[in-house]
Amino acid sequence: MDTVFAGLSVRSRYLRFHSPIPVLTPDLRRVLLPIDGHRRLAVAAWCGRVPLGIARVTVTAPGTADIAVAVVDAWQRRGLGRRLLAAVARLAERAGVTELQGAVLPDNVAMLGLVRREYPLALRHFDGDAVQLRIPIGSAAWTITDEDVYASLLTPYQLPR
């Protein structure tokens, strides 16, 4: 985790944590480190012994999990985030998760584009600070109705001025 964090620029850290985080504090480390294989799941990408990225899900309610992805700057825009997102979604589905949720800052156009391409049925809304995502996975992806998609399209998020 330290190597991935160190490989993030100031901007990438801001986009990932929604705040300028200069160092991993002990409190943040306690939140991010525990992986139990049931409620807290993660996948990582490596090149030899060097970690390049990590994707995590944390189950917040039955069938629902928060998701977060980070890829070191040197490996961004090479498809690694897409592969991490897909791998952690499969892991979450096997753990009984049917919906991933996440908050993405509006300036994180790369992540918003990735979600739009990989999960076209994802529902999005802007809450004033971030774009809130709801991504159905597995068999739940087929339960989204036309009305859900139309409602999502009719109420697009607007970027803050």
The overall pLDDT, averaged over residues, is 90
Please write the CATH class name. Alpha Beta
Q: CATH superfamily, called what? A: Gcn5-related N-acetyltransferase (GNAT)
Q: What is the approximate shape?
A: globular
- Given the structure, what is the number of helices? 6
Descriptive terms for the model:
single chain; alpha+beta; Aminopeptidase; 6-stranded mixed β-sheet; 34% helix; globular
Q: Can you offer a commentary on this structure?
A:
- The protein has 161 residues and is α+β, with helices and mostly antiparallel strands.
- It contains six helices and six strands; from the N terminus they run αααβββαβαββα.
- It has helices spanning 2-6, 10-17, 26-32, 80-94, 109-118, 146-154; strands at residues 40-47, 50-61, 64-71, 99-104, 123-126, 131-136.
- It has a six-stranded mixed beta sheet with strand order 1-2-3-4-6-5.
- A hairpin with a 2-residue loop joins strand 2 and strand 3.
Q: What is the topology?
A:
Layout: H1 2-6, H2 10-17, H3 26-32, E1 40-47, E2 50-61, E3 64-71, H4 80-94, E4 99-104, H5 109-118, E5 123-126, E6 131-136, H6 146-154
Parallel strand pairs: 3-4
Antiparallel strand pairs: 1-2, 2-3, 4-6, 5-6
